[in-house]
Design goal:
105 residues, mainly alpha, 2 helices, rod-shaped
Length: 105
């Protein structure tokens, strides 16, 4: 018995549908295999990210508590109590020079 083109097309559609379902099962199995194979590494990465966040917060806190917040993009300090004091001393010496109180700095 010969199959008609319509019958062959119908069989092909059913076959493709069945194969697509089986392929999805394989995809699901592969995903489970992948997840179980990398689970420990994913957990470790998550832990390390959490630790990194803690240390980044500690760095920010240290900078804030010690006056190191005002770094420019080159890493130079623009404002810090020690720099402010140094600049004040410089300005005081220059004021003495300009007012005639000192002849050398």
């Amino acid at each position: 018995m010969r199959l008609s083109k319509t019958e062959k097309d119908e069989i092909a559609k059913l076959y493709k549908c069945q194969r697509a379902m089986l392929e999805q099962d394989i995809q699901d199995e592969l995903k489970i295999e992948l997840d179980s194979g990398i689970e420990a590494h994913v957990k470790k990465v998550k832990e390390l990210r959490e630790q990194a966040e803690i240390h980044e917060d500690l760095i920010k806190k240290y900078k804030k508590e010690n006056g190191f917040e005002d770094l420019d993009r080159y890493g130079c300090m623009r404002s810090h109590p020690r720099i402010d004091k140094f600049r004040a001393e410089t300005n005081a010496q220059l004021m003495k020079l300009w007012s005639g109180e000192a002849t050398t700095i």
